[in-house]
Amino acid sequence: MAPASPRVLIVDDMDVLRRLIIHMLRDLGFTDMVEAHDGSHALGLLRQDRFDLVITDWQMEPMSGYQLLLAMKASRALAEVPLILMSEINSAEHIQLAFRGGCKGYLLKPFSPKNLSRQIRGVFPRPAAPRPLAAAN
Fold it and tell me: Residue 10 and residue 123: Cα distance in Å, rounded?
């Protein structure tokens, strides 16, 4: 039996971007994805169900992705769920703030499938390749 795909929560206030990320994740082999339209919606879903990764936009109302990150880190039940923040802001201060807050990755918008894959590998490193079987004598 194949291992279950990690469960990913995609949070963005733009439907088209959520759908694009889902498409990219499917191309990377993910099959279990859930959508939320803002941080407060995502927090409710996180409190109801188990997720292995959150990918969220920073700039949303009424709860931003950064506020979601801080709420998750303050919750004993959610503190260990990895979160990748997406933003259009490319400043060292902004990125440092994200990592000091506890995010596991930062995607600068717009991003490519390769950049998304790189960030996800930082959260879910690939297992070591199986060793080849020894030749029979």
Answer: 15
Q: Where are the beta strands (DSSP E) in 1-137?
A: 7-11, 32-36, 53-57, 83-87, 105-108
CATH number of the CATH domain containing 74? 3.40.50.2300
Closest CA to 68 of 124, 12, 6: 12
pLDDT in tens, 39-97: 999 999 999 999 999 999 999 999 999 999 999 999 999 999 999 999 999 999 999 99
Total domains present in the chain: 1
d(CA 105, CA 87) in angstroms, rounded, equals 11
Domain hosting residue 57, numbered range: 14-89+102-111
Entry pTM: 0.88
